[in-house]
Amino acid sequence: MSYKRTITITKVFISFTTKTKSELKDKMYATMINYWSWWWEVDNESDELARMLLTISVLIFAVLWYKWTRSFTHNRLPPGPFGLPIFGYLPFLNNQLHEKFTEMAHKYGPIFSLRLGSKFHVVVNSIDLAKVVARELDHTFANRSPPVTALTITYGALDIAWSNNNAYWRNMRKLLVSQVLSNANLDACQGFRTNEVRKTISNVYARIGTPVDINEVAFDTELNVVTSMLWGCSSNISGDFFRGFREVEFKIIELLAAPNISDFIPMLSWFDLQGRNREMQKQRVHLDRILDSIIKDRIETNSRKMEGAVKEDGRKDFLQIMLELKDASTSFDIVQIKALLFVRSS
Fold it and tell me: Where does the secretion signal sit in this chain (predicted)?
């Protein structure tokens, strides 16, 4: 009797469980039907078009996500953390990048990879690997991925710092090293550098007992030395001409170093959500005003057959070399000259 009772109770329990599961499935099915009924119950053509576009968007996103995950997992890539769709590992970073990268290096090894937005990054954290990247594989890793603000201030990466490793970059680098940074040119500037430092020391000494902005003094001294090599106008143009140049230069450097979501998700660059590019365009207007005036003055001087571009020791400044190159080549223009002058002055 006890055995039969056990069988009966088991059958009743199984029947109750089956009935409960069936009812639960029916409720879930009814809930899904009610929840997603808007998907296929449309009242007009606008709703039907919206449904079609949403369906296509979901399918495209699913296909792209599938391809992205397959390429990330099947390629022979360095180990690294997984991130979120679209944003990658960006939400997990903080302003202490060196500490975060050190922590990740302890976990993943001396070389690891991560995605920041839609861009893939590889981080090396050892001296040996850094030598491989910077020396042995220099041509492979020489190209840049400029920030949006850098492209704006350099007229589309026409300078040396952000340009890709191509024939243009190699020619400009050769010209800079041979004409501006050559030993003969640097030796010729030694007297001027000495005079500028002595002048600065005298000015500071004369202001004993009054507050002195060392940043301002150092910037002015460096500006006079550099501009003498670039366009030789340190003694020809008054200090009023460079009024505000210091603030513009500092603002440009600040914008170049500031994080910008458009650099990590390029499709958002059209919206400029943080306003970095708009602000950089304003700074370029100020910089253009200074450089245009300097170039115009030099062209007028050359047209009057004056030797203003040639120093007493026979040395030509960088601007004069660029203008002569422009006259000799149709592929070199004023915009490229301004891009090179900006990088050298900064």
Answer: none
Nearest to 226 by CA among 261, 259, 186: 186
Q: How far apart are CA 99 and CA 71, in angstroms?
A: 29
What pTM value is reported for the model?
0.71
Question: E-assigned strands of 20-157?
Answer: 111-116, 119-124
DSSP H stretches of helix in 258-317: 261-264, 276-303
Tokens 């589309």 belong to which residue? 156
224 shares a domain with 267 = yes
CA nearest to 235, candidates 177, 285, 195, 279 = 195
Q: Which two tokens stand for residue 286?
A: 């100020």
Range of the domain at 114: 77-141
Same domain for 214 and 117, yes or no, is no
Asked if pLDDT for residue 5 goes beyond 90, the answer is no
260: nearest Cα among 250, 275, 270, 249: 275
Digit-coded pLDDT (tens) for 236-282: 555 556 667 778 888 998 999 999 999 998 988 999 999 999 999 99
| CATH code of the domain containing 339 | 1.10.630.10
Q: Are residues 234 and 103 in the same domain?
A: no
What's the number of domains the chain is made of? 2
